[in-house]
Amino acid sequence: MKKMKLIAKCFFFILIFAFAGCSSIITSTAQYQEVEVLIAQDNYIEAVSALKKSQRKYFDEKDRILYWLDLGLLNHYAQQDSSAIENLHLADNAIEELYTKSVSKGVTSMLLNDNVLDYSGEDFENLYINVFKSLSYYRQGLSEEALVEIRRLTEKFVELEQKYEKEISSLKDSINVDSEIKEIPINFYSSALSHFISMILFHNDRSYDDARISKEKLYDAFDNQPNLYSFTKPDFDTLLSFSEKSKLAFLTFVGQAPSKYEYTFSIDTFENLVIISIYENDKWTEFSTIPWEGINGGLHAKFAVPKMKKKGSIVDKIEIYVNGKYMADLTKLESIEDIAVETFKRDEAIIYLKSLARTVTKAIANEVLNKELDKKTGGGDWGGLTRLISGALINSTENADLRIAHFFPSIAYAGNVEISPGTYNLEIIYKGKNNNIIATDKFENYKVAKTKDIDFIETYLLK
Q1: CA separation (Å) from 455 to 244, 248, 249, 325, 416?
Q2: Alpha carbon of 255 to those of 252, 260, 376: distances in Å?
Q3: Which end of the chain is more exposed for a tag (fewer CB within 10 A), N or C?
Q4: How far apart are CA 88 and CA 68, in angstroms?
């Protein structure tokens, strides 16, 4: 009982501290408003400058990974490849450092929320960092470094599995809801996008057998992960075949990866039982019940968790024209947003249970504190007021951690054409669902040499 009283007092002071500095426990998105306007104008250089200006005001030390991710991606789109590599490398190393140290979620997060913690990146961000580092290295002519990044991505699939085994084990040791902890399988273990890049890198490095293997792995990603690759499998057989003509390969990113929104739950306790409700159709409805040994009845509180929401893209079709003549459509290669949602499933389940445990702990501590105050004040109206205030403080700290990198794309398209050596005007035309032209990327007087190498062109339209 003495221990619980101590926890309750600590809890009260932390709540007061949090209330005074509530910006540290609520996710801010104000820093992205100007940047989004500039991106809509395809002005990535100014978008980089705008994000840099916002760093001091909006990005604390705990948000450093988020800042490096956002800035590194904007650097990439602005073709500032050295800066892109530097910032994405900083983010990559910091994520690895947090994983390696198995950073504890800490007492403060168990009394407040995950916004107070170092942001360690979502799984899809951790994976796609290496894709964009690879592409920036390739643009600099550093093909070996580019291949290292693709190999690193492959290694991370294994590391992420190990990470979640440790997190689930730790969670079982720390909360009293073992029956609710279920391991969620993630059906993403091979990226067609990464294999497409390695296929071209190997081919241009004259490692033709490795290029063929990458192509087969790309096809396998479609065959073995149909829930994530539900679109038509592309055909890159001719891209690797030798002919008198030169090969142009295209990789285009469109849209923006998912954002997060807050989803609220309510809890009510009975003896040894917690009832969880959700707000749907303008009313609270029962969501689930969890046996919770030792809990008393009469407690009420709310907690919030993050959910992912896809942004998609207004682009429905991408066409390639050479000297004004239609040549081919690009085909969908990878839905980064689907993979983001899929890989978030395990985090979502863990966050839910941790948030539930945290809220129950706070509710119990709050009741202990209020009973102590009742003894000193006689309860009555004063007791009702203290409960009202402390309950409001609890709810004010239960904010979902909505941090997420804002500038990963939503979908990757790829394709290729064969043309004779010469100088051409190339156009990549983006169309909407009504076949309306949204935007056009032009490459005028583009020189195509006679070579066995695959000429690789990357574009992006974050709409």
Answers
A1: 15, 5, 6, 19, 10
A2: 10, 16, 59
A3: N
A4: 6
Summarised one tens digit per residue, pLDDT across range 330-376 is 999 999 999 999 999 988 888 888 888 888 877 777 666 666 655 65
The amino acid at 191: S
SS3 361: helix
Terminal-residue alpha carbon distance, the chain:
57
Give start and end residues of each alpha helix (H) in 205-307. 208-224, 237-240
The fraction of the chain above a pLDDT of 70, given in percent, is 81
Site of tokens 């003549």 = 325
Question: Taking residues 256-277, what's their average pLDDT?
Answer: 90
Which DSSP state fits 233? P
* Sign for the pseudo-dihedral over CA of 433, 407, 417, 238: negative
d(CA 344, CA 341): 5
Burial class (CB in 10 A: 0-12, 13-18, 19+), 49: middle
* Residue whose C-alpha is closest to residue 79's, from 103, 55, 45: 45
DSSP 232: P
| Confidence check: pLDDT of 231 > 80 | yes
CA dist 43 and 31 (Å) reads: 17
* DSSP letter string, 381-407: HHHHHHHHHHHHHHHHH--------S-
**pLDDT tens digits, 384-429:** 445 555 555 565 666 788 999 999 999 999 999 999 999 999 999 9
Does residue 311 have a pLDDT over 70? yes
Cα separation, 150 vs 189, whole angstroms: 13
CA distance 461 to 463: 6
Asked if residue 400 lies in contact with residue 262, where contact means CB atoms within 8 angstroms, the answer is yes
Mean pLDDT score across all residues of the chain: 85
Max Cα separation, the chain?
Answer: 94
**Tokens coding 344:** 């978030």
Distance of alpha carbon 145 from alpha carbon 456, whole angstroms: 17
Distance separating alpha carbons of residues 224 and 295, to the nearest angstrom: 46
